[in-house]
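We recall that each integer encodes one residue's backbone shape. We quote one record:
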Amino acid sequence: MTKHSYQSNLLKVLAAALLVAGVFSPTQRANAEDFSVYSVYRGVDLGNPGEAAPQRDYYVNMGSAQGLGVGSSLEVFRRISTYDLTSQKLYKDVMFPFARLKVIHVEKNAAITRVEKIASTDETPSFSPRAVMVGDLVRPAR
């Protein structure tokens, strides 16, 4: 057996073991954590007297293919890494809901939303900024 064929066989065995162990998958499975805010758009405030401040639009990577329609609501979650001060190591990620978005436009795999509600400081852990931002996770509201 040549060195090249030995390495090739070893890689195949390792890849099969990782598949069985669930470390990676050849097909991506969709779950709530796969959907997030991927862009935020805010119109320009021209400063005209009596003109309302522009709305912020939040673009999410889920749409009609995932069951959304105009008027649907999405829960917004923030994932925060926690740090264990006693061991001086990262401990775990915590994830909590803090806002609700309403869908104003929907396409097959994308939607445009606006803030419907931001939870009060009494209802959520301390975090900053207290606004929806790119990377926040979303899932249909219950």
Notes: The two ends are 59 Å apart (CA to CA). The longest strand covers residues 89-106.
